[in-house]
Amino acid sequence: MASILDLVRTSVAGELIHFVSGGRLLQYPDQHADFVVPVRFGLDSENSTIKDVVLNDSDLEKRTTNDDPNTKRNSFGNDDVTLATPDRYIVDWYGPSDPENPQNWARWKRFFVIFEICFLTVAVYIGSAIYTPGIHQIVEEFQVSEVVALIPLTVYVVGYGIGPMVFAPLSESPWIGRNLIYIPSLILFVILQVPTALSRNIGGFITVRAITGFMSSPPLANGGASMGDVLSPANLAIGLSFWSIFAVQGPVFGPFLGGVFSQVKNWRWSFWILMWVSSIALAFLFFLLPETSPATILQRRARRLRIRTGDSRYVSKAEEEYINFSISAFLYECAARPIIITFTEPGVFFLNWYTALIYAVMYCWFEAFPIVFVGVHRFNLIELGLSYFGISVGVLLACVAFITTIRSWLIPRLVRGEPPEIIFKIAFFAAPILPIAILFFGWSSTGTVHWIVPVIASGLFIIGGFTVFQVVFNYLGMSYPRYLASVFAGNDLFRSCFAAPFPLFANAMFTHLGPSKFPVGWGSTILACFAALMVLIPIFLIRLGSKLRSRSIYAN
Description:
Elements (H helix, E strand, L loop, with lengths): L1 H8 L2 H9 L16 E3 L13 E3 L1 H9 L5 E2 L8 E2 L6 E3 L15 H19 L9 H8 L3 H26 L7 H19 L4 H14 L2 H13 L2 H32 L3 H21 L5 H16 L4 E3 H6 L4 H18 L1 H31 L4 H7 L1 H27 L8 H7 L2 H12 L7 H28 L4 H16 L2 H12 L7 H14 L1 H15 L6
Parallel strand pairs: 5-6
Antiparallel strand pairs: 1-2, 3-4
Helix pairs in contact: 4-9, 4-10, 4-11, 5-6, 6-8, 6-9, 6-14, 6-21, 6-22, 7-8, 7-11, 9-10, 10-11, 10-16, 10-17, 14-15, 14-21, 15-16, 15-20, 15-21, 15-22, 15-23, 15-24, 17-20, 18-20, 18-24, 19-20, 19-23, 22-23
């Protein structure tokens, strides 16, 4: 019971209950009457000589009644601690084993938080392509072309590419944190499914989908940050790999659900089911997702100490850093820095191109799969949705292989002091898989070849694509730790905006290039050629990456 209350206390629901009750319900340990306030806090004052002092309520009273302001009693009743009056007390953790530090949480609690973030990621990312199996129903109902009917997919992808530019910096604010980004955006996401399902014209459908895409982006913006909050640096790569499985499974699982409900009911039911799934996630996370941002946890601790002691000098380090954070600085953090880093750092620029191409191929397949499995193999909409599960199997295999490689091969070399560019040796094996798998898919998609072959090809592609993604994200994390939020936000924006238009012309590219016996053959060949060129990027960076980082003002 205490464990469940521990989860609820720092959730959004717990904070609301705590606030409405005036701090009487779901109290923190430092609000109990017998709590002794340790002041092992660094003091930002040249004259401060305090190192270790313990304050309790009686000491606070003695402080106010002592005739000599420079002589203070400690909690043991001694008069031998001499202080200069500090400007402020910097609130920090109560030692290395502080139980409120997310990295000190019990293992079950950290795993539970990881599960919640993964659940949230799937719940919103199934929305990107969930309606695509019913695209022909939309064409008939709204009397538009198929290209126009795909614009809602495009604007959704652009929306969740733009979102991290805003939500990632906001979540770093000590007064906001992770939960006040996740929960309000998820509430709006759930509500927006209603006007989406009830849309009566294509203009309204496109508009609502653009807003919904923006509101779906917090897991993409902050999911990795939440992993970093609760995992040690040594285990972060494993956590990010596990979370990435669900980031891929969302867009894969969406067409399956959309295919089922489009065939049994109609395309509008895709959004009703999305509303139900995301509502379950909302109810679950509203009560059971604890705040993980260390800056926010310490800010709330400082606030409680200010209330308890009546001393406004208790502040967290993050509060001090953000107190003078201007609007212009925030806009620079959101908009300018991610773009500047993307286009001035050659390594970041080329790696963003690489991930953008993988993303583009994935979204091209939302058009290629119906051509192959409906047009050639005569699948119904439910069977079409099932055809995407080759990608699901592929990403699971890739994750197991990548984690094994990280633990047994990469980490020992990094510990020995080898540069982060060593990780591109993993990409030497993964990158060539991409063009091979795309060609395999394109030229096996014909009536004389069993349908399982292109399904296997799609799984093979994601093995290479997932591995390259993990290599890129881990390299960026090791090379740009100080500006990681900006680097990842720039990557999200770049790849999403690049990939978003591909579904609009993919159908024409595949069908016009043909040939009729291999309807996606030449279109896949074009994509494979670009993927083959991208193999040069890890070769380039393993040779010159260290020199580029040494000249950078942003890199580690």
